[in-house]
Structure formats: structure tokens, C-alpha cells
Amino acid sequence: MIEVVAGILRDTSGRVLLAQRPPRGPHGGLWEFPGGKREPGETASAALRRELREELGIEVEPGEPVWRVPWRYPHLAVALEAISVHRHAGAPRGLEGQALAWVDLDELHRWPMPAADVPIAAALRLPRGYAITPDPGLEAARLLADARALLARGVRLLQLRAKSLPAAALATVLDAVRPAVEAAGAEVLVNGPVGLALAEAHPWIGVHLTAADLARATARPLPRPRWVAASCHDAHEIARACAIGCDFVVVGPVLPTASHPGAATLGWAGLARLARDCAPPLFALGGVGPADLDHARARGAFGVAGIRAFADGAP
Fold this sequence. Notes:
Blueprint: E1 2-8, E2 16-20, E3 31-32, E4 35-37, H1 44-56, E5 59-72, E6 77-89, E7 100-103, H2 118-125, E8 129-132, H3 140-152, E9 157-160, H4 167-184, E10 187-191, H5 192-198, E11 206-209, H6 211-216, E12 228-232, H7 235-243, E13 248-251, H8 267-276, E14 282-285, H9 293-298, E15 303-306, H10 308-312
Parallel strand pairs: 1-6, 8-9, 8-15, 9-10, 10-11, 11-12, 12-13, 13-14, 14-15
Antiparallel strand pairs: 1-4, 2-3, 2-7, 5-6
Helix pairs in contact: 3-4
């Protein structure tokens, strides 16, 4: 597997830099995050400095990792590690004749990219925490109150999980909570078949596929930039989510939970094994919360997801 680094450069407006590949050769004419191959024995940071100096004529100070994408193309396998550029000196120029473009995050889906770059584009739009509402049963008012409380706590990625609530009642909740969502600059996904049923009438929501939904799916149910996520428990389900173009996955349970005592868990080692070969950004779920973010990221996760931990603590 070839190790590749990519730099995430931002301008003062928050746009990110893309570079166009040569018209001939692999991925000809597609747009990618600038970077290149790591040399043997070279650290990711050193490779990024060298590649951006050679390609763009700038000196960079690498920041934190964004996400690492393992991907198998027909002609080779790569591991693409995207790293934020903390600061850079000089104006980027296409020293190899490549076109450059500064692109808003919400417009990245309009730029044709190599497949390995697409999960990086998703990761740049995602926060590190994914909050899930407690299932309200048939109490629509409870769901609305829980959603508003999580948004007030600073949650920016929220799943409405209401498996028993009729679609009409959930639609009313969506209409009522939308002003708070927009004021918070948050994104909302609705869990399961009811989310798919409501998506056409509510084009501002995404959908979160259950494992059963994922098994039945033959294609991505919503166009980008609307979010499509999936619950996964093993490598087979992760591969399925990747095949239909899910933007991110939630994997668990990692640790024991009060709601499912005695259930089998992945443990941190199991999470790390699944994360190693996962292309879409992966959120760890089950017995974890915001306080476990650093631990989860050290095991390869992008972020953490949860119910009680987000209701009781900071996002």
C-alpha cells in the first residue's frame, strides 16, 4: 500500500485549496487535496512539507491529522492521510502546471475527485461529536425538547432517533425544531425508514441507515451534500456502507452500556482493527462520549457518538 499525504490549506474565508491532476494518467483532470507520496522513512509531516514546497512553492507548518483513507483502486492501493496546515508562508502556485482553486466546504461535492479524496471532503464538514436523541416512544414533545436541549448545549451534528413515532408526528417535530437547527448552524439526520420517508418533503435533513436499512440498500439514497450515515458492527457492514457512498459510519458498541448490559462489545482493540481499514469517517459508539474523544481518535476513530453522554455533558 502506497502512503500518501494531502494538505488541507484554508484561506481567510475558510475555503480549502484543490489542485487539478494532469489530463493524462490516473484520475486525469480530477481535483484533489494537494500532496503526494511519502518517501521511505519519511514522516507524514516531513512529506507534507516537501510535497507542498515542490508542488505549490510554499513553506507549511503541519497541524493536526484530519482523516486517513485506505482505498483500493484497480491499479494500486493507497492510504491517504489528510493533515491540516496550521500556517503557510507564500502564495500557492501550480509549479507543475496544475490548476488551483479555493473552494467552499459546502461546494466540494460539485468538484469531481478521486475516490480516496471524497471521504476527506466529508470529514472537513463534520464535527467530532455526533449526538443521538433518546428514543421518545410516542412522545413527540419529548423528542422536540431533547433536540432543542442538545442544540443549546452546542451539538452541531444531531440524529433524531424515534423508531416508534409516526412519520406525521416526526414531521411536526422537524418543522418545530428547524429554526433552532438553523440558528445553531447544525445538521440533522433522521434514523431509519422514517428518515427515508421524510427526506423528500424535508430536503434539509439527512438520513441515518440502520444495519437492516444498509443491507437492503442498493445505492446512496440522497444526493450530496445531504448527509447519509450508517450504523455498522463489523467489517462487512463498513464495506457495504462504503460501497453505497455513505458519508460516515457509526461503529459499536465499543464498551458496555447501561441500556444493553451483557451485550458483546468491540473493546478499544476491536475498534482500532475496524478503523484501520475504514474509508468513511468513523464515529465510536457505545459506552463512550465527548470525554473519550482523544482516546477514540488514538484508536483510529474520527469522532464519538452517543446518547446519554451528550445529554449529560459537553458536546
